[in-house]
Amino acid sequence: MKAGCFLANFSGSSMKRNRAFNSVFLLIVLGLVTGCNSDGGTLYDGDSEPIREIGGSPVLPPSGDLSVSPLLLARSATISGKRAVPMDFQEVLLEISIDNSSNVSTGVADIAFISYEDGYPYFLLDGTVVSARLNGASVSIVQTQDPDSLNSIRMVQLPVKAGANNRLELSYELTSDAVSYRADGIGLVTAMADIDDGNFFEAYGPANFEDDQFRMKLRVNLSGVSSAHQFFTNGRLTELGGASWDVDFPAYFNSSAFYFHVTDTALAVRTGNYEGLTKNIPLTVYAADAASADSAMNALPGLFKELESAYGPYLHESFTAYISGSGGMEHCGATITSLSALGHELTHSWFGRGILPGGGASGWFDESIASWRDYGYQRASGTALRSATNLATLSKFERFTPYNSYADGRTLMGEFDYLLAGKAGGLRAVLKEFFAMKKSQIIQTQDFLSYLASRSGQDLGWMFDRYVFGKSSAQAATDAKEVAPDSQPSMHPPALTRDDIERLR
What we know:
Zincin-like; 9-stranded mixed beta sheet; 5-stranded mixed beta sheet; globular; disordered N terminus
């Protein structure tokens, strides 16, 4: 999952599809990383030709390798008589070309990956696959469903060997509703949603399940446009001129972490800096109106001070906020949000996008913390027995967070705070320790629960069973009074609608 060092140049004015990805043109660099990994290798030479062999001897995940998720290893399944095996993305190179004259947007992707079981690899993509090659051989891609019918997956119709390094090259068309085509320009924003039936990066390019971290390099090209365009991202941006941009995203990102927005819409943009505990943090805030952009920029210093004080130094390289007036979604160091939910979304830069949940069954963790913070970190007065709630007993194919994470989750956080108040200094102190230990890593529910139990010095198994896993047979707490769960609405705004997305582009 951890990508190596990329040293790359783009040569020529465009990428040639007929070279079948022998030239890597897509520096899709939404990254927050300032340099190359010291243990990495060079992928491209100055002519953009690959100089590292992608196929090779098997490389199985070492025992205890924390970068390989247990869920990733468990998501193999037999589909239509074939063994479908998950892909562990090592790196993705992507070029998206948007033609305003034809109203067609296309993508070319080069994915280096490993699978840990013999079988037919699969990935996520909403667009239409035009052509594909696996390790140099032409291959068909079949669209099907995972065994629990939660996701539409793309299954490669050639098998791979366990542990082998592989290369999948894709040419595809984006869905017709992914881009807004206008008279003189275009609009595209990675509008995602992580609650219930949401969507992640698969709407724009090949993606994976949330427990896979990988570096992505992106190039975006526009043609048939006459107006000026602005480009916003949570990656490291290079403007190439001629309506083309490169973005580099770092290796700790997963498929919901990436954010970019290219538009010809006139937007109010404010930039600044916050002097954080350990570094200077560049800030970009933009909105349709100057008042919203100004209000958000004025609010950010106080929010950063609050959150760094509570949970430690900010992880990401910068912070970008699109003040939308509605909707809400967090990314690594970026958000689309209403002004009222800015603090909620910034909290996710610590929990959700600083520590990254590995799927729907662990997504409750960060939403519970952010919601608990929204309501003033209310500490429970005891652990009264209440109705069982299910936050984490979900399918291994579930990518999205259950909506009850907000109310039920923050109630549970207040109870954890009560139990930790004496010995560990309260839940916030424990969360600060947990963030320092797990930042930039994928976690599962059990990682968090195990740490809580160790810091509390108490047997919390009955609480986890009843309020996290939904088991109603848990033992009674000391105070067996039955109470109703907190039913206050969340301060998290509802997911963006299709009309919202069209407006925001």
